[in-house]
Task: structure prediction
Amino acid sequence: MSSSSIAPGDLVLLWAAGGREYFAVAGGDKLHTDLGIVDLKRLEGMEWGSTIESHMGKPFVVLKPRAPDFFKHMRRTGAPMMPKDIGAIIAYTGVGPSDVILDAGTGSGVLAVYLGTIAKKVITYESNEQFASNARKNIELAGLANVEVRHGDILLEMEKLEGPFDVVTLDMQDAAAVVPGALRVLRPGGFLAAYSPFFEQAAETRRAVERAGFSEADTIIVGEQELEVGRRGTRPSTRVGHTGFITIARK
Amino acid sequence: MSSSSIAPGDLVLLWAAGGREYFAVAGGDKLHTDLGIVDLKRLEGMEWGSTIESHMGKPFVVLKPRAPDFFKHMRRTGAPMMPKDIGAIIAYTGVGPSDVILDAGTGSGVLAVYLGTIAKKVITYESNEQFASNARKNIELAGLANVEVRHGDILLEMEKLEGPFDVVTLDMQDAAAVVPGALRVLRPGGFLAAYSPFFEQAAETRRAVERAGFSEADTIIVGEQELEVGRRGTRPSTRVGHTGFITIARK
Amino acid sequence: MSSSSIAPGDLVLLWAAGGREYFAVAGGDKLHTDLGIVDLKRLEGMEWGSTIESHMGKPFVVLKPRAPDFFKHMRRTGAPMMPKDIGAIIAYTGVGPSDVILDAGTGSGVLAVYLGTIAKKVITYESNEQFASNARKNIELAGLANVEVRHGDILLEMEKLEGPFDVVTLDMQDAAAVVPGALRVLRPGGFLAAYSPFFEQAAETRRAVERAGFSEADTIIVGEQELEVGRRGTRPSTRVGHTGFITIARK
Amino acid sequence: MSSSSIAPGDLVLLWAAGGREYFAVAGGDKLHTDLGIVDLKRLEGMEWGSTIESHMGKPFVVLKPRAPDFFKHMRRTGAPMMPKDIGAIIAYTGVGPSDVILDAGTGSGVLAVYLGTIAKKVITYESNEQFASNARKNIELAGLANVEVRHGDILLEMEKLEGPFDVVTLDMQDAAAVVPGALRVLRPGGFLAAYSPFFEQAAETRRAVERAGFSEADTIIVGEQELEVGRRGTRPSTRVGHTGFITIARK
Result:
């Protein structure tokens, strides 16, 4: 099965009782935590899932971090796209390990990180320099060398891009303006996915997609409700996830 | 960017005007279609996205097939899991290219194929021999050598499995009975995702997850509605996707 | 309890096995049906819920018709407002038997009929003469003398109305234009309810309500899903009711 | 139009700037408020919607209270049924001014009060004496002499009831057990509406309805989402109303 011993440079998640979690790199320096100092050199050769102790004798389970861990620990500069929407984009565009993806605007980098855990390469544009800088830190935290954040205006920069990209993802106010360029840089059969929090924007993007000449297009709303399973019975929760609209189009 | 010329053995999707689509293998024999015969040898060295003609002069665009293409063309032995639910499972469990995944029951193989386009290895169990055989054909169609369909009862077979698996996915009536075994074969920090079409089954699975001792658990309903963007205005469609319940739990 | 014998002039619903239903007036002429002729004079003095036979000996249960019967039997000139939306309007505006209500556009008259079964008086405007004429027939079928259909443009006619109305209901494309006049003719504390099938129209109406100076406003989407209760389990249906947006505002 | 001057004994709602509201009876004693004392004798003969001042010169608009006012001001002994669900019950059963309705369990009396603002008579059973007493106060506040709260177990008391009732409404855990008796006391063509917060209970009630021999049955989930209309655009809110299941059946 999958290799279960830790190599130098591997990103690890140290999990302590009570919900404290720390990202670290195996073979690195000492990690200072509220529960004492952990010697990261000692992680090399350990089995994933085994336990390491701090100098105070506090135990940490050593986990291989997964995308939901990055999602949870990323520093957010705005409301991030939610996993239900990220999942719908991945499934409807069919993101896979050989894909080269163009993304804009990066925001906190949540979508770029998720895509980066699967795809070969992700190039993501963010026009706000502070957001771009924060996203770079989030991507570094996730140890994703294949995700590149570029500070700039995708509308201007796109003309210099050649592609072909397998997938283009957009989460920005002016998505409609970027649609014709997205069609140009996409590989035939490649997919565009544009996320819009507002109806007006979703309708505008969808119309831009139809004008641009994509071969297929759908706009969907993905809802999510928790099911509360209690002693008295089972019922949907009254909280729902933040809702947006996703336009999926194929070249 | 990603390599754009076709090698022998590559799976291709031939796309003709009017919606006719054919899967084929580059370098293979001749493909007989309603629009004439296509010489698959000639695909070698062509660029992805270029056009090949049948002996009748009918053009086909040559596409690199993606997961939604497999979803569309798989022969179904029952109601398949829908992309919105597959996407939620991928995003909430964080499926990535290094993952080894255990899946049961296979059904038509829709989930296994989607997982197989991303993960390193998928082992999927199906107790119905006819379904298993059909799923194998679907997986062959998708060219996924890393997805293995096993005919058998997961409840019995699981004891022989060692794991560790990064993710376990279940889409079967007796999911609750499989939950304790799933916990055993999961890697620490790994995820279980169990899909249930009925409330009763969802509640039972969720209770089994809590009894088994997973560290986190949520049960969600993922809804999907199309947004109709017409000349008179924009509104949600009255069709909704088939709805199920997904229990996500972490070891 | 409520009087249970039938008086001349009472509207009755004759219910035959196999789903055949006929509206009739007690004390009227003979009713010709597929199951023979029913002598409507004989209905006088019968108990509600008893059975009357046609000249061919076929039995009909004699029911007091209710609003859902009118809804089912009205001739429709377009997609009618659905009971879930009608119910939300009734509950959020608090329609009661002393209310005088202004309604526009009538359409098939579904909302006007529902309101007419509860309120003291309903005046409803329809600009399309054919629709107005069809609605009058539907209202006559329902035996509602308190519902008056006026053919005309509510925007022009409203200036001649004095009110005060307890409730104003709008189901028309230009609802936003009618909002200021609605505020004028409403009694203080009275409610406006405007139904919009499209987002654009809903947003426009809501903005008009806020500009006009109503004291409270909410726009809601009311969804409805059937619960399928089968032998294998319970689950939401994949059909959903036609969805619209309702803006409720109070003077 | 509707009479617009206030008679002695009329229930009024006094509305002050800043959201302060008081129920009072025209012709009654003096009302002590945070904004001074209001002489209720002076309300007689005033127009609805006019303004009365307290002894401190603070103005109150005099409104005719409507069902949503009662809903807002009732003292709650548990989670009340929401207007969207109340509206669906009214519309699907066709509640009108000639109806005699049987209701159980009363809870805070929210449904009984709503039904009482429309129907001729409502008899409502509550097994918890404290709840029954609180509901009586809520009904008195709403000035509804036609709503009678009975403290007792509907299962036992039902045998003594003759009916016929036009509508029976149930909001209680053991609704399924009451279903056969409800069928007996309903007028032919009359409706049962049973509200269940949990799936298990909804399925049980629906099965009881089918066993009992009602002629039609549906179970629905009514959802409600607010539409947020802001400067940047329009989108559904992430809050949804408390969701329950309503089984509607016809005798």
Notes: Chain D is about 25% helix and 35% strand.
